[in-house]
Amino acid sequence: MTARRRLRVLVVAPERHALRQPHAGGLEAVVWNRVRWLRGRGHDVQLCAADGSDFLGADTGLHLPRPRWHRSLDASDTEFPEGHRRLMTDAFDRIRDRLIHPATGVDVVDNHSLHGAPILWSRETGIPVVTTLHTPPLPAMVVAAHAAGPDAPHRFLAVSRFTAGAWAAEGVDAFVFPNGVDGAQWQLGPGPRRGEESWVWFGRIVPEKAPHLAIRAARLARARLRLAGRIGDLTYFTEEVEPLLGDGIEYVGALRQPALSALVGSSSVALVTPVWSEPFGLVVAEALMTGTPVAAFDSGGISEVLRGMPGTAIVRAPEVETLARAAVALARRVRSGSARRGLRAAAVRRYSIEQRQREVERVLMMCADSAPVSPALRAAGAVALAERDAVTEAIGA
């Protein structure tokens, strides 16, 4: 290992879905790869994540409660069932109290949670916390960021300039560290068989990702389309997606690797159709890594991810006809093996996970070294805990 020393890192994942394949979404994939990569570099990594996640140890004190829905129809990627927030408050309080204990061996917290509490751990425990912003601004996290104060050993990273700008508008400044893609998982694909036109859409099946618009574009172009991904909103799928299936439009389910990479890599073009402020758009980089061109809506950080990349097209959302024309043109232009190899080479240069994770490793190392956790800091954290009730009420934890 080339790092200066072995870090003791606590990685805090979002608790909505377990970290395991098939990944529930891009956020889960990013955190799963972070843990795997840091451990591969020789760091001592503890994971705080939902029950059922890979990499969880026997210490149940670091297991987070997953949302439990009474009916599958009620399951949501944006809301929580009644009582879940209280369970999370109790879990985060338990973990914070562990961090304050002198026997705790943690140099830095790598925080990907979508809650405010882990941000406050930096002030309450004196342990440095690095929080990555994966979403548009969330009120609880904004309140916690301001409550932590400028002197807390805390740093924010954002997955795109677009996302950093959205948080900056709320008074939260962040350094930009785009996501990376593992080229060993997302390998160069051969494209479609001769004479075939097979398009692909993959990701979370939810209204804001709008796969129904990808289906409409494929229909206009008379192209075959395969959709892959977890159904995150059953009502949306039943009412808006399922009725459009058939006659060359196929839903293949949520796929694990390497099946998902093989599907994308054997396609003529990938459609990316967000109709919300997409923070990054990991599927864009993943598709390009397989050599498959991408036609995408210009939403949020998508244009930033695609800027300057060959074999891509950006169109205004939700202009389905324009998307269809762009996809047809890309599929015709990027047919040869050499063209697909060029797309992959460009994606590797920009989005290689090795490069991205090494940059994050340096940030974690720097934060750990610049804010050593002394007994005085722990004592200060104990005092800060006495003040936490008002902040906890304000963020609704």
Automatic annotation (TrEMBL):
It comes from the Bacteria. It comes from Microbacterium flavum. Residues 25-182 form the Glycosyltransferase subfamily 4-like N-terminal domain. Signal peptide: none annotated. This is Glycosyltransferase. Keywords: Glycosyltransferase, Transferase. Residues 202-326 form the Glycosyl transferase family domain. InterPro entries: Glyco_trans_1, Glyco_trans_4-like_N.
